[in-house]
Amino acid sequence: MLSRRSLLSAAGAGGVLSGTGPFAPSMHAARTKSYSHSELDWKIKRHDFSGVTKNDLPTPNLVLDKDVFDKNLRMLAGHCRKTGIGLRSHVKVHRSPEIGMLQIKPGAHGLCCATMAECEVMMNAGAPGILWTSQPVGSNKLSCVVALTKRDPTFMFIVENPITVDQLEELAAAEKMTFNVVVDNDIGINRRQGVKPGKEGLELSRRVMKAKNLKLAGLMGYSGAASHAKGWEHRRGVSHAKVDQLMESVHLCRKAGIPVDIVTGGSTGTYDIDSLHEDGLTELQAGSYALMDSHYRTIGSKDGNETFDDFALALTVLTTAISRHYPKRATIDAGKKSMTLPTDIVKDRPELRVRPAGAEFGIIEWDETDHEPKLGDQLELVMSNLDMSVNCFDRMFVCKGDQVVDVFSVMGRSELSRA
Q1: DSSP 361-413
Q2: How far is CA 33 from CA 40, 134, 213, in A?
């Protein structure tokens, strides 16, 4: 019986996998070293990636283009320095402590986290200035904010309910500590959370100020509608209108003698809009800029380009064509477990269409192409919703060109494999 490696050698010599035409195996399959997951775990533990390329990786897997990623980080950091607005990068898209620390390095003064688990992972990595963009409700979350505040007194989280404010005041008094809280204003995110801007924002801020063991760090407002509004001029109008709602609460607070140091919000889609708003946000919560996805590519740039190309596509799902049985169609090994969607695109292959075809499988289709995917070909998918796709994996392989140079963990999970 042929072993895996002897099978690949036979293929390279025109043996058992030989064939021609679009349905024949791609010959790069014969050259791959074909590292198993356990072999890769051993190399990760030793941090030894010599000779490891994309072609050697099992699929599906996340692949990060280091050069593109580094450029994205420098781009937004430079913009923030130039315009004077702060940057508190959101980690909910990548959930990687390595990326979080790299976002801080060029200029972000802190990180935003969507979940308590993200807060813990980022704090474990040494990240300062963490803002948890959710309200602590329930005994578990309340005990967690106590623990994180004890570790880092600058830790912040949002509130939007007077009952929660009262509970936090009682807890902080019992623990003999001070909590830093940010009042969340609902400026258009489907009534998910947040006080109504204006009078409600003022009243809750005043309640926080009266509490002896709570410190009002600032006010927050995020609008998903603004971040993905298509067309830069249209997006500017939507974003300014939403920020104006948040500023109604800010102005009422300041008029009442309540200091508001931090006004936080914004997104990747509005980074070059919110930073120009007079008397607006003091900091941006952009996060997608580091990696980018196919949805953001469609919102349009300031220069009138239909493609939002301010930040380039850095993260993809590497997948393999595992069936070429039917014309103008290839089956790939990235399916619903990679969160494959019809709105995903194939990197550098606009003529190819993507759709899910089961838990483990996806379909690539085309009408006409000069380069049909062959059996064994690797393709890179630009996902529509990176928040969901990244969460399906434990790690992302960092590449310069085709060479693997590092591995970043997702939620610190793959750190178990490293020394």
Answers
A1: -EEEE-S--SSPPPBT-EEEEE-S-HHHHHTT-SEEEEEETTEEEEEEESTTG
A2: 11, 45, 60
What pLDDT shows up at residue 192? 84
Give which of 292, 275, 230, 286 is closest to 71, Cα–Cα.
292
Domains, the chain: 15-65+310-417 (2.40.37.20), 66-291 (3.20.20.10)
pLDDT digits (tens, 9 = 90+) for 240-260: 999 999 999 999 999 999 999
397 Ramachandran zone, left/alpha/beta (phi>0; psi -120 to 50): beta
Report CA-CA distances (Å) from 351 to 203, 328, 376: 55, 11, 19
Give me the amino acid identity at 67: D
- SS3 of residue 289 by DSSP: helix
- Please state the pTM of the whole predicted model: 0.90
Tokens of 15: 């043996």
- The amino acid occupying position 187 is I
Judge whether 350 and 397 are in contact, CB under 8 Å: no
